[in-house]
Amino acid sequence: MISKEAVLAKDGAGFPGLSFQKNSLKPIFDLQKTYYYRIFIEVTKAHVVMLHEQELMTGEEAKVILSAMAELEKIPMEESEYNPEYEDLFFRFEKELENRIGSDLAGKVHTARSRNDICVGEFRMVLREKLLKLGEGLNYFREALLYVAGQNLETVMPMYTHTQPAQPSTLGHYLLSMADVMERDFKRLLAAHETINMSPFGAAAITTTGFPISRERVCGLLGFDRLCENSYDSISASDHMTQFAAVMMEMAVNLSRFIKDLLDWCTAEFGFFRLSDPYVQISSIMPQKRNPSSLEHCRPILGKALAEASAVFTVQHNSPYGDIVDSEEDLQSHLYDGVSYLTRAMEIMANVISTMDINRELLKKRAGENFITATELADTFVRESGLTFRNAHRLTSAIVRRLYREGKTAEDITREFCEQVSGEVLGKRAELPIEKIRMALDPVHFVKIRDRTGGPALSQVLRMHEERLETLKEQEKQLADIRAGYERAHEMLALEVERRVRGSEAS
User: Fold this and answer.
1) Dihedrals φ, ψ of 365, to 5°?
2) Residue 507's pLDDT is what?
3) Which residues of the chain are modeled with pLDDT < 70?
4) pLDDT at 504
């Protein structure tokens, strides 16, 4: 029978209760030791350098503390287990430092800072690295799209609307459209990075501090682009998380829609694509089967990415606008897992499409079936017979319906047939030479003359392909420059630490 006394007897009467340890504090510690221990040391180094520069710590004190930091970096914290003597990693670290330099000096490290700004700042630093990895994975996928598109700029194929054959286009045109979607996802990632890479350090608990610290110096030493200036904003905002989550949700949806097409088009019924052997599985009983399991696995992986990103909004909804555990470790892993799922799926998808066989002859054949060049026939009636487009549309629709009822195809259209139907539908004969009819019904001609901006004609897709390749190179450099900025900050901090440890900055 449950009772207060029974629960306390089982769970313990002091902090932390066993159930609290097992179900909350230990999982949080496991997350902290994996992601935040090394970064916490980096953050502490930057804080100590700043305190020394602001004359809030002597050179000798900074030297001793920073030397101890080097020892703490050697601790294999990732292998350690949760110890209930310490509430979390922060207090575990503080105790390790005290053991080496004494509690008085270790206590100086915490001058003008709080777990509030530390935790938010550490998370932003991990999140910006995750964003870079996601961006790199996205660009690998975009490279694959452009590679296959470049090989198929003139591969005529049917396109679909409402899942029905609609008009001819090219595979290159289709893949370039997907590349453009992913390019916009990349831009959304950069916008999220701009929000993430703002330093909250120096905000302390809520209101900064009365000590003459330099928030700007810590910001620079840790590679942030600028301050999250308002100190309450620094420790309260969660839009850097929800914005990143929104981008991931967008990516997951875009990728999953693409997979839907790929899975349809590699079926025997379509037969457009044949996946390479590394990406298909054989049935345990049916020896002829070539199951596209690689793409099938990507679909639930993307579903999980969508779910993880969506969870960020669910957890944040209706949480107080302030420092609150709702925005901390229980939430952050959803973003990390979402990034993992997305990068896994994109790597598989990139390799699948880069290696698949494309049945170009079948694609061209299908592009001439199901009357999908009818739009051009209507356009030709406008150009050659002087009909309004609405009348040309009525006439062409009637021609298609008549042929369908009679079990005929577009190849059965003749000049006489068109004139007969036009007389019935429009009350006048629409004359059209047979050579114009045949040209209008040719899917290659259909694509060739659609050379307006962004169309599928070779002149357009060739231009777009070249421009997209150049844009991809520029955006890959953007990511490299961002990463280089982090590395420069890390090297600058390492140099400042070394100068103080060697005593050249002692005062």
Assistant:
1) -60, -45
2) 45
3) 504-507
4) 55
Strands 164-170 and 198-199, bridge-based pairing:
unpaired
Task: Report the alpha-carbon distance of residue 404 to residue 395 in Å, rounded.
Answer: 14
348 Cβ partners below 8 Å, 6+ apart?
279, 294, 295, 297, 298
Strands (E), 235-327: 273-274
Burial (CB < 10 A; 0-12, 13-18, 19+), residue 470, is exposed
For 185-217, the pLDDT digits (tens) are 999 999 999 999 999 999 999 999 999 999 999
DSSP conformational letter for 310: H
C-alpha 308/C-alpha 311 separation (Å) is: 5
Instruction: Say what the pLDDT of residue 227 is.
Output: 98
At residue 290, the 3 state secondary structure works out as coil
- For the full predicted model, state whether its pTM sits above 0.90: yes
- Dihedral angle computed from the Cα positions of residues 138, 144, 146 and 148, in that order, rounded to the nearest 10 degrees: -150
Distance CA 73, CA 501 (A): 15
Q: How far apart are CA 381 and CA 432, in angstroms?
A: 7
Find out whether 195 and 201 touch, Cβ atoms under 8 Å. Answer: no
Instruction: Quote the strand ranges of 260-319, DSSP E.
Output: 273-274
> Rounded to the nearest 10 degrees, what angle do helices 115-151 and 37-53 cross at?
120
> How many other CB atoms are there within 10 angstroms of residue 354's CB atom?
15
Mark residue 191 as left, alpha or beta (left: phi above 0; alpha: psi -120 to 50; beta: remaining).
alpha
Q: In sequence order, which residues have a C-beta less than 8 Å from that of residue 264 and are 6 or more positions away?
A: 270
CA distances from 18 to 85, 92, 261, 429 (A): 12, 18, 51, 90
Closest by CA position to 258, among listed 332, 185, 359: 185
pLDDT tens for 99-135 read 999 999 999 999 999 989 999 999 999 999 999 999 9
Tokens of 24: 């909350």
Integer-rounded Cα radius of gyration of the chain:
32
pLDDT of res. 506: 46
